[in-house]
Design brief:
454 residues; mainly beta; Neuraminidase; 4-stranded antiparallel beta sheet
Amino acid sequence: MVNKALSLALMTLALLPLATPAKMKEVLRWKQLDFMFRSNEERTRAIQTGRFHQENTLPLGLEVYGDRIFITLPRWKTGSPATLAYVQRPSDLNAPPTTPLLNPYPNWEWNRENSGCDAFTSVFRAMADSCGRLWVMDAGKYNVVVDPQQLCPPQVLVFDLKNDTLVRRFRFPEADLKDGSFFTNVAVDIRNDRNGRPICDEAYAYMSDVWRSGLVVYSFKHDKSWRVNHDFFLPDPLHCKYTVGGYTFHWTDGLFTVAMGPVDTTTNDRMLYFHAMSSDKEFAVPASTVRNSSLANSFSDTFKYLGSRGQNGHSSASAMDKDGILFYNLVTRNAVGCWNSKFPYRAPYLGEVDISDETLVFPNDLKVDQGGMDGFTGTQTSSKRRRQTRTQGKQNLWVLSNKLQAFLYGELDKSEYNFRILALPVEDAIKDNSCHPDFIPSVEDLPARFGCDL
């Protein structure tokens, strides 16, 4: 009788109330990108000299901090006048989408093509930390689609977002590189002191080598790096075929992204969640494993397999919110997924935030902002320092989609919107799916041994 009552209770509480999921809101969108040149004459000269080929300019990465949205524009082809830019962050996510001009970050001089290795070569991703710094991953690789050239060593550049000045440059040493290495992502790990203040000088950065399936860890305090290798970083040969937007192609992309879990207050450690892009599987490892330069390649048993995303489970970028909800792009489903790390990584618990064959064609980058503790208002003082604010706020999920498959293997339709930035409050992203903390799977979805006990 007790077992029957338990079964009935579980079925009664089986799922959260069904409702229409909150769709991600289009915040920004472009048919083609354009820039805030200093004059119309300068724009005309840029076009005439080949410095600006509008059809060759594609946004790939984003970061949101304070009153700005940062956008990376790798030089897949020649003719992108800036490789890192920003636009103003809309104050109302529900307002109609706009098509703003892009401003080069931090200025035009940093972004000019063929300006030497002290400027940007080709920026793929960027991440802002809780200390108000922007970490920029410059692959140093140019004209990747047509004639790949490693013009400069890969480097990470750190800018102070209060005054947009460079505070650290780190060029990867030869020991961290392999022939054909291609670094495209950076994640920044900062811990707080007992008073809740970030310990900025003890930051670590995790950079993924997508073509040679490795992880480079960088210590800001010691200004040194080391490479970590593991079989879990490799692509899965059974998942190297992609079909997106009518295009079919094969990629062998390995380790793509690292998402950081919340810090465990008892151990001061956190889990790192990662996957190869050409794969359907998710893995995890304690940050303490890879942050130990002498032991990072010795603790293979601390790397854990979590589970599979199933058919068409290719995932590009991912990020985790402060409560341990992992969000990830699903490039061959035109979708954004989620998972609550308190649950097992298996089908009943893998939620869907949104799916769209219009707005989410090749969702490429994804970020969760810092939720109101992240920044600086647009107010400028005489010293041009951005004024810091500390207002508590809720986190938002941000996604950039860019029809990369058409850009690489065909041609973008200039009459359509090709590039989008979408956003949604995290609480809305999980309220009607299995990522919600109150979610209870149906009895049929529970592990077999549990069902047999009823």
